[in-house]
Amino acid sequence: MESSRSEFAFELRTCRWAERNWPPDGSTEHTAFVARQLGTKRRRWDTLVLECDPDALYERANFGPDRLEGDLLHVVRNAPADWAYYRDVLPHPGYPWRYVREAIHRADERGVLETRRDGNRIQIRRKWAYPDWLERIVAIENKPDLDASAARSLGRQLEYDVATGLADEVWVATRKTGERVEPVLLEDLPIEAGVLALEPDALVGEVEWYPRTLPVEEPGTRILERPEGDGRDASAARFEYVDSEEKREKRLEIAERAYERGWRSFVETMRPDCRHFELRAVDGSQLTPHCRAKNQTQTAAECSSTCPHVEPEPPTWRTKGWPIEGGPGKRCRQLLEKRRRRRRPGL
């Protein structure tokens, strides 16, 4: 695999390393699954590792493979075991009740909530108790080649993560150089962040610095603006506090999105229907995208409609075996989706 070609290829190998070796201390108390390119409106992480309670993760499958968004979570998590008027049992959401009613109807349509009418009143009853399946979120930033400018940018991103405390741990994964002291350790990065030196081709990682566990149950600080001048710039940074309840809800929403997607979701942002697109097995198991026209592992930006080499599958490919098989592009999606489902017990 062309691990030196792009950060994207390195990112896929980091995900595979995490799937095989997480947690680094070798404990097996948790079930972990990996997601890519997820986060919040203000912050997106390269790789997320979700540590889950195995039994609770299995129970989560009762609610299906699709994510439960914030309004659905509000309804499902607080639904009573016995019939009751929804306004009597659901906490006030902080927005109009009509949106709660819409969420109740959507939950009923998805089969994750029971509803009935008592006159003009909508009563609800849970089908299953929503399990406390998420235990920890670990965020990893992938920087295979950490030069000075990349280190400055990364340092600010990690400072934001540490101050907010949305993830339990934050890490930096970089390419292993083999030097006595890895260069990443000499960069001005927050001491709370862990450092992983990874040899992507051999898929061997070594923890160079263990992270501190962040106080996710306590209020955090969201950095909004910081001084941009030189060393004599004494202007103050702007920030706001993030209460613990907002963090708790946001963590669960992120986990639900990760549960729905899984990390092998790169074909959604590529062109698997191009005749040059194919999946290649690395180390006998990991499937990664490969472009025959460029003879390399392509990025999502390269594998798009603007690529000069893009060439849609011939109609005879797309209709071959229709509607059971479809063309190669459809088969790629099916294969990756099947692997994704295996990472979610109970589905």
Automatic annotation (TrEMBL):
<protein>
    <submittedName>
        <fullName>Uncharacterized protein</fullName>
    </submittedName>
</protein>
<dbReference type="Pfam" id="PF19100">
    <property type="entry name" value="DUF5787"/>
</dbReference>
<dbReference type="InterPro" id="IPR043901">
    <property type="entry name" value="DUF5787"/>
</dbReference>
<feature type="region of interest" description="Disordered">
    <location>
        <begin position="311"/>
        <end position="347"/>
    </location>
</feature>
<feature type="compositionally biased region" description="Basic residues">
    <location>
        <begin position="330"/>
        <end position="347"/>
    </location>
</feature>
